[in-house]
Amino acid sequence: MDKSDLKALLSELLEEVLEEKLEQITTKHERKAEKKTKYRRRKQQENNKSSNTNAKNSFDVESLGLSAAEKKELAQASKSDKANNVHMKKEKLTNRRPSGKIEVRCRSCGKTEKVSPLLVYKDEDGYRYKCNRCSCSAG
Fold this sequence. Notes:
Elements (H helix, E strand, L loop, with lengths): L2 H22 L3 H28 L12 H16 L18 E4 L6 E4 L5 E3 L2 E3 L3 H5 L3
């Protein structure tokens, strides 16, 4: 093999390597899109697995290898739970009722406002309230 054959062989190998590299190089947009599709596929597979486990009872008492006394105790506990409605779904609380506002007069400037009762201090003389403007000012 002389130098010209070697150069030709090396140039062919270099071209093959460069073509492979060019095929592997993708744009940022393509990488993001591929990442999203992989994420979606994985999530879909997880959802399918979880729905399959929810469809069949995943808790198998037989696989635990309980003794007869333990099985009897488990049966009594499940009867007790059913009798006390332990497994009943609880209703979610909807939006809370808005608290009523009370009308108070500022003890410094005399301005009357409607505010939440939580902002008013009650002492033996009655209610004490200071408006924001008076609270932020000096004195």
